[in-house]
Design goal:
The chain is mostly helical. The protein is about 50% helix and about 0% strand.
Length: about 110
C-alpha cells in the first residue's frame, strides 16, 4: 500500500451536465423552494427532545473522581508481568495492587 495520492479523472462538461440532470430529476430529493428554506429551523430547535437525548448519550458517563494520567517509569519485567498475567486491563490491576500496598480501599 502506498501513500501516493490517487489520480482523479476530471469529468467532462457533458458528464457533469448528465449528473446534474439526474440529480434534478430525482423524485426522492427535490430542490427546496425559497418558501421552504425560509421556514427551515435548526435541528435542535425543531426537535429539542431528540437533540437533547443525542447530546446526553455521547461519550462516557461522567465520573465523580476521574483518574489522572501520569507518566511513570517502571522496570520492563514489571510491565511484562502485568501484561502477561493480567492481559487487557493490566493498568487497572496495577492501580489496584498499588492501592493494597499503600493501604487504601478500592474507590467506588
Amino acid at each position: 500500500m502506498t501513500n501516493q495520492p490517487r489520480k482523479v479523472r476530471r469529468l467532462s462538461d457533458r458528464e457533469e451536465a448528465e449528473i446534474q440532470r439526474k440529480i434534478a430529476s430525482d423524485p426522492d430529493a427535490p430542490e427546496a423552494a425559497d418558501a421552504q428554506l425560509a421556514q427551515a429551523r435548526p435541528f435542535a430547535e425543531a426537535f429539542p427532545d431528540l437533540a437533547e437525548s443525542i447530546k446526553r448519550s455521547r461519550g462516557r458517563p461522567a465520573v465523580d473522581k476521574p483518574r489522572q494520567q501520569v507518566s511513570i517509569r517502571l522496570d520492563p519485567d514489571i510491565i511484562e508481568h502485568y501484561k502477561r498475567n493480567c492481559g487487557k486491563g493490566w493498568q487497572s490491576r496495577l492501580n489496584d495492587d498499588l492501592r493494597k500496598v499503600v493501604g487504601l480501599k478500592k474507590a467506588s
